[in-house]
Protein: Thioredoxin-like fold domain-containing protein
Organism: Digitaria exilis
Amino acid sequence: MARPARAPLLRRLLLLAALAASCSYYLLALQAQASAPPRYDGFAYGGGAAAAWKDAVLVEAFLDPLCPDSRDAWQPLKLAVERYAPRVSLIVHPFPLPYHTYAFHACRALYIANKLNSSSTYPLLELFFKNQEKFYNSATSSLSSPAVAVEMSKMASKAVGNSASEFLSGFSDSRTDSAARVSFKYGCTRGVFGAPFFFVNGFLQPGGGSPIDYNTWISILNPLVSQQGERIEMFTSM
């Protein structure tokens, strides 16, 4: 699949600098306000297998549903997590990049799907990755925001199982807007300024903004899982 034309390097650098500055601002503002959302941000992957975070290696991924690099990062991450489950848990935090015009719509769509049918959240994310070109800036330049929401709802209804009109009504729900905003602000508090970004047990992994391949994930996770097994054995033998 051909990638969209890349913006000139200077423009992209300026946008990244602006995003980093806004993240710094949000970090200071949020710390000052000290207001926490009612639930931890993001979507746990793997159902019950992801519940006991304290007993597993926790991977957190900040992904933009309309970002080609996030798309390329997803499959190797998914395979690595599934290889080690339930000893590895995954949470994906939606992080809409400002230079993808309708990335915020896509992140809202994930929250709408999660509300209507929580098991459809990741299938919808994968649908966005598969059909990104339909929502690239060039493809939507002549469409209005409501028109894009309609197109996303038509696509999302295939994953969620509800009608497109029922899904579309979620874009009128202020709670999905608030949830997507919290996701972006939360990313900013973690120093995220691009996608994909990855944290393992709270520690930022190098190469933020670029995919991590499967073999690299194995090299990251395997030693941690091995140490975890040794720790569990030590405690059970006491």
